[in-house]
Amino acid sequence: AQRVTQPEKLLSVFKGAPVELKCNYSYSGSPELFWYVQYSRQRLQLLLRHISRESIKGFTADLNKGETSFHLKKPFAQEEDSAMYYCALHSNYQLIWGAGTKLIIKP
Amino acid sequence: DVKVTQSSRYLVKRTGEKVFLECVQDMDHENMFWYRQDPGLGLRLIYFSYDVKMKEKGDIPEGYSVSREKKERFSLILESASTSQTSMYLCASSLDRDSYGYTFGSGTRLTVV
Predict the structure, then answer these.
(1) pLDDT: is B93 or B27 the higher one?
(2) Which of A35, A102, B44, B57 would you call most buried, defined as having the most Cβ atoms within 10 angstroms of its Cβ?
(3) Which CATH architecture describes the domain A3-106?
(4) Distance of residue B113 Cα from the nearest chain A Cα, in angstroms
């Protein structure tokens, strides 16, 4: 069965420290994976997708098929990165969502 | 900008009431979705629709129904609200079946007392 797992409900790091938000998936076939972000009092929005291999707001995510992971990384965290982050898998014309990780950046 | 508008930001209803949550999108998207968002559980799909008058159950449809009489509007109905349905409800739309770029509404925080 298709599944997305985000093992950390909460991640707290200091400003300037590296950030890694973990995402593991279960999927038979070639996965299409995404990260969505929800800042406080704002709408959920697409952050990045693995196909485009782009860097948005300094975040990158690499698909590792061997480890079935799609971890979100940023080398130097900023206070404005504090938000809720969701990993999602596109399957059967829908998105399958992880439970989300709340990222808190401490000053 | 694609806009997905949810009619209410906050709603308080009594147990047993029939509740309507409205969602309207203005970019001619084919797909519309209703989710509930709960801490530690992420987004859970309630119902979705790929076309007018078409609906399909998601992962947690019990206690809910939907209506899509027009392409731009997707309504979520709680037939008899219960306290377990207290949650944040998110509406989303996407262009078509192959589109993964969802546009979300700002959400409706429903409290059932």
Answers:
(1) B93
(2) A35
(3) Sandwich (2.60)
(4) 24
DSSP state letter for A74: E
pLDDT tens readout for residues A16-48: 999 999 999 999 888 889 999 999 989 999 898
Question: Per-domain residue ranges for chain B?
Answer: 4-112
Of A34, A44, A93, the CB nearest to B97: A93
Contacts of A56 (CB under 8 A, 6+ apart): A47, A48
Residue whose entry in the numeric block shows the structure tokens 């709960």: B38
Domain ranges for chain A, please list them. 3-106
Cβ-based contacts of A34 with chain B (< 8 Å): 100
User: How many pairs of residues across A and B have Cβ atoms under 8 Å apart?
Assistant: 41
Q: Hey, are the CB atoms on A43 and B100 less than 8 Å from each other? A: no
Cβ atoms within 10 Å, residue B33: 24
B42-63 confidence digits (pLDDT tens): 899 999 999 998 999 999 999 9
